[in-house]
Amino acid sequence: PQTVRLEEYRPSDHLIDRVELDVRLDDRETRVSAVLALRPNPAGEAGAALRLDGDEIDLVALELDGAVLAPDDVTASPSGLVLHAPPSRPFVLRIETRLDPSANTKLMGLYRSGGVYCTQCEADGFRRITYFLDRPDVLSVYTTRIEADRDEAPVLLGNGNPVEAGPVPGTNRHFAVWHDPHPKPAYLFALVGGRLGRVSAPFTTMEGRTVEVAVHVEPGREARAGYALDATLRAMAWDERAFGRAYDLDVFNVVAVSDFNMGAMENKGLNIFNDKYVLASAETATDADYANIEAIIAHEYFHNWSGNRVTCRDWFQLCLKEGLTVFRDQEFSSDMRSRAVHRIAEVRTLRARQFPEDAGPLSHPVRPRQYAEINNFYTATVYEKGAEIVRMLRTLLGADTFAAGMDRYFAENDGRAATVEDFLAAFAQASGRDLAGFAQWYEHPGTPRLSVEGRYDAQARTYALTFRQSLPGAPALMIPIALGLVGPQGALDGATCDRVRDGIFVLEMASDTITFENVEAPPVPSLLRGFSAPVRLETALGDVDRLTLLAHDPDPFNRWQAAQGLALRLMTGAAEPGTREAYGRALAGFLDTEALADPAFAALILALPGEGDVANEIGEGVDPDRIHAAREDLRRHLGAALGVRLSALRAALAEPPGAGFSPDAASAGRRALRNAALDLLAAADPETGAAEAAAQIESASTMTDRLAALAVLSLIPGAAREQALDAFGARYADEPLVLDKWFALQAAIPEAGTLARIAALRTHPAFSMTNPNRVRALIGSFPLSNPTQFARPDGAGFALVADAVLALDPINPQIAAKLLTSFGSWRLLEPGRGRLAREALERIRATPTLSRDVADIAARSVA
Ligand code: HT7
Ligand code: ZN
User: Fold this and answer.
1) d(Cα 7, Cα 767) in Å, to the nearest integer?
2) What is the pLDDT of residues 129-146, one digit of tens each?
3) Residue-wise burial string across 777-816, b where 16 or more C-beta atoms lie within 10 A, e elsewhere
4) Of 119, 172, 289, 526, which sits 20 to 30 A from 757 (CA to CA)?
5) Which residues are catalytic?
6) pLDDT tens column, 10-30
7) Which ligand is nearest to the CA of 306?
8) Which residues, in sequence order, are CB contacts of 410 under 8 Å at separation 6+?
9) Distance CA 116, CA 110 (A)
10) How far is the CA of 563 from the centre of ligand 1 (A)?
11) In Å, how far are 157, 240, 558, 578, 592 from 582, measured between CA atoms?
12) Backbone torsions φ then ψ of 185, nearest 5 degrees
């Protein structure tokens, strides 16, 4: 496939100032008339041909300034339209295309989801609607007329503000006209037509503008849209407070659809969502679902400035909008919830998804330099590591200078298609600092290693810390290291170091040493507090040091990190003798004194690193069965050692009868701790645990409690498990989003029978290969949550996923390619399993007629 390279970027030879679309919706034959006001781009090549992008569309009619073109002047195919000698002055093209939304299983361009017409244009879906300069640096003002059958699509939504609506005389059809005054790239275009219910509320911006905010869902589901509406209003108010960003249209619409390739899409004024990230009720959604809804609603809304008002020059700059917007949504969630708990959640995601990606064959810089298929670059690296870079920038500059830089970035780039350089220039100007070194974070793949050695000098009462960084192929990076010293009573506040400002030392060289004065006794260094940089930290901290940090570090992140480090050392056999018992005693002390004060944090302290975390820690020759056994052993031990306390906590945290449901963070934290306790208790005593879990499934008044109990029971083979699974499946037979949880739970059972279970569930009436949520739930979750069965020594787990990739590819290549990325860590496996994984990848590669999406991932995975 053709490779696109950053260094080959050239401005477009033509610009499109205005677009007038007339879309006549029809389930089999939708007609689109596009009137494009074009002109040569002074920054482009004079006299160049006009090459419009197209993808699987039929040209019906074409006129230039009202005249039909001679056949020799044009070359048209479903994948493009070329005007060989376009005018060298402004001109108007009218293009009529024809497309079939019902046949569109790729879910890119215009398609139907559950009877609703909707669009997905990022990254390059607009070319599936009409021929266009489908690139993010061509910004146009759009007016869209949408016409549809009145019964089939009573609601018609577009970008911008509503202008006009009415019947089409003499027909059962009607129309609506929408105008978006803000110039935008085609990837932000959207329309929706369908039968939809809505909830809405007014919002008054800080500029005094009244905005009608509405969330549209399948009729009958309106009661489940209230939380998403509330989250939207909170996000709008927060962006004004935290970033000074106000909304800029009269309406803001959110629409939930059930077939969607990703989480949601930030189309201007018309955000389209996967319904999983809109619909919620106590009966159907877990606390994690509520938190995700809040975060994703906010994320898409925040794009209105970071992505829409300031967009990207080209797709290599994707992190410019995605990394920044993830940072913004993380800050929002931290303000809405507990900052410390949220930071831990962010780092868990980063380590579970981004670190392995960066350590494997799909590793790439946050700003990639080349791609064969851009849809394969919506990655954890671009999103999560991209957000970490913005976070480091704030740490380096301080909150006030960072805010000044953000204001400058928005002011100077409003209405423009910007680059990472534009972003950094705003901060360099606001701070007066040279950020050229910092820019290297965008350029180099891989996770830097940061090793730290401490030396105490009792006579001088000094403590020296030597830092060494390494990332093959990269120069020394600017690494902000938040740190402090800890002793047996807590922080050693008397110790000082002139190279540490506001608790931060910035490492700029390959190695450096700093010295603390006034250190009365050998301290324990607390390094990388709050995970101040996305690096792998290597220290010589012993188990006793880690126990000190767990007990006394004022930084909650590093307390949690200490517990994780101890658990990892225990599971990998690196721990010192006696640590298991000491770890159990430390957790017991923690539970006695702190658990009820902050249950959400306590639940995180109790949660063992996942099997994937252990595999990443081991780094080579991984045998998933051994990891699983080691983790189970530690779960059992903790369950037994803490059993009395865990039972007491469960009782103390029990919901009072008749208590109403609240999705707030404090209530969710209590549920999390109650269920973490059940998990450990059941590990130590499966019989009692199974009974308790079964009772909780019956009595639960929230999906969080019901699902957590079912998850515990799902790990205990026997009739009770099968009955509970059957009952759950029957109870929620008409709730696809709940069945997704049920599919995923069964796919995660670490037993040989799971492959047969998955095969059987693929024939379940609710399962469908055309719905991405179903595929992700039953098949996509399997390699991620079930390492022993995915990497079975007979290769059957790899074969299951490879077969699913091949079956899915002709239906939805984006989802197929995403599924294939689950092979990303195959090189960590021991040789036997590694060979089988490679064979599965080679089998895919050798398959003719692969999509570009799957061919690209398969090729890079084995390279
Ligand atoms: N900016 C959006 C990305 C997205 C997307 C990309 C490719 C194919 C389908 C897609 N749906 C949404 C979502 C976001 O990150 O905000
Ligand atoms: Zn985004």
Assistant:
1) 44
2) 999 999 999 999 999 999
3) bbbbbbbbbbbbbbbbeebebbbbbbebbbebbebbbbbb
4) 289
5) 300
6) 999 999 999 999 999 999 999
7) 2
8) 245, 305, 309, 310
9) 10
10) 36
11) 61, 48, 18, 6, 15
12) -75, 160
Phi/psi at 178 (nearest 5 deg)? Answer: -120, 140
Give 1's pLDDT tier (boundaries 50, 70, 90): low
For the chain, report the end-to-end CA distance as a whole number of angstroms: 15
Centroid of ligand 2 to alpha carbon of 213 (angstroms) = 20
pTM attached to this predicted model:
0.99
pLDDT of residue 659: 87
Bridge partners (DSSP) listed for residue 452: 467, 539
Q: Are 254 and 273 in contact (CB under 8 A)?
A: yes
For residues 515 and 282, what is the distance between their CA atoms, to the nearest angstrom?
53
In sequence order, the β-bridge partners of residue 75 are 82
| 282: DSSP letter | T
What is the chain's Cα-based Rg? Answer: 28
pLDDT per residue as tens digits for the range 736-746 = 999 999 999 99
- Asked whether the CA dihedral 659, 665, 670, 673 is positive or negative, the reply is positive
| Upstream peptide bond of 123 is cis (omega within 30 degrees of 0) | yes
Residue with token string 């849809």: 375
Which atom from ligand 1 is nearest to the alpha carbon of 378? 6
Q: Which of 321, 322, 381, 319 is nearest to 350 (CA)?
A: 381
* Single-letter amino acid code for the residue at 542: G
Site of tokens 């996923």: 801
Measured in angstroms, how far is the CA atom of residue 110 from the centroid of ligand 1? 15
Q: Which two tokens stand for residue 532?
A: 């101040």
Looking at residue 99, its amino acid is L
Three-class SS of residue 200? Answer: strand
Instruction: Looking at 247-370, list the stretches that DSSP marks H as alpha helix, in order from N- to C-terminal side.
Output: 287-302, 318-336, 339-349, 355-359
Contact 535, 482 (CB under 8 A): no
Q: What is the spatial distance between Cα 760 and Cα 737, in angstroms, rounded to a whole number? A: 19
623 residue type, one letter:
D
